[in-house]
Write a sequence for this structure.
């Protein structure tokens, strides 16, 4: 793995339990994704979207409980371990804990995955997010797993600033190492502003700003509200967002065409980084 900085383990503050404590079971998050290109040509894309937030340890039980959702097999909605990490079907907990261990972080805490499921067997996730808890409580790291439309995948593991581990918002940053858009350079930085999931709060937000040496070039966000994860809510999500994953990939290509027509410079896709995970420090490291 690429290592930006070695991260030492932290101790959770006793008796505190705010937004970073991962007091959250599996849930459905309904919301809106927005992408805004700021320069050289301004461009905006927004669409309704939903994601599942799953405790990775609950996946087999969810598959048994829900008629419309299955784990590692076909259904209206499904989640397959082969769609994540190295793509080899490794158990999600084992995969994430391998990255945490390589970063010098503690294992054994709660792990929640925020991702779009497969719908009728198909999924494309531009971004999947793993919220990694400390075994003593609190949110100790976030693993951002990025996929591009060229079949490549890369992840960024970033420790949470100790002062923010039990709060409602976290701020993180890292250098960009992976080609995502053919209309953005590789020499950039990501700034993340995240309001992590919490059972005591309905809202969730993932905000990303891509910056070059001159400042912000693009912003992207997912703003959503929690709903219980059940067959009724899944059916509602399907009929209110029909064939969502197909629409996401179609929207990405349509907007790329519009950017090209506006004169945005096209960059060819380079090989993916040799190491699939970049380990970065905290925002203030």
């Amino acid at each position: 793995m690429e290592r930006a900085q070695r991260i030492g383990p932290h101790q959770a503050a006793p008796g505190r339990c705010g937004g970073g404590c991962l007091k959250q079971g599996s849930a459905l998050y309904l919301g809106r994704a927005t992408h805004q290109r700021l320069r050289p040509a301004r461009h905006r894309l927004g669409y309704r979207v939903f994601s599942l937030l799953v405790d990775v340890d609950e996946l087999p039980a969810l598959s048994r409980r829900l008629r419309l959702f299955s784990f590692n097999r076909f259904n209206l909605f499904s989640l397959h371990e082969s769609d994540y990490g190295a793509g080899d079907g490794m158990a999600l907990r084992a995969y994430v804990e391998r990255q945490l261990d390589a970063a010098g972080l503690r294992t054994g805490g709660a792990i929640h995955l925020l991702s779009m499921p497969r719908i009728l067997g198909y999924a494309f996730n531009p971004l999947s997010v793993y919220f990694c808890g400390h075994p003593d409580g609190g949110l100790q790291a976030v693993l951002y797993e990025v996929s591009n439309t060229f079949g490549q995948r890369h992840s960024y593991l970033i420790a949470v600033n100790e002062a923010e581990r039990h709060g409602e918002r976290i701020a993180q940053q890292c250098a960009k190492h992976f080609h995502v858009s053919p209309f953005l350079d590789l020499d950039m930085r990501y700034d993340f502003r995240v309001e992590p999931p919490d059972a005591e709060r309905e809202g969730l937000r993932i905000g990303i700003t891509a910056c070059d040496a001159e400042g912000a070039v693009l912003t992207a966000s997912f703003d959503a509200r929690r709903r219980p994860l059940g067959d009724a809510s899944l059916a509602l999500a399907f009929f209110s967002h029909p064939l969502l994953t197909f629409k996401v990939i179609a929207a990405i290509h349509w907007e790329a065409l519009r950017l090209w027509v506006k004169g945005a410079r096209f960059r060819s896709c380079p090989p993916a980084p040799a190491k699939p995970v970049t380990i970065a420090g905290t925002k203030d490291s």
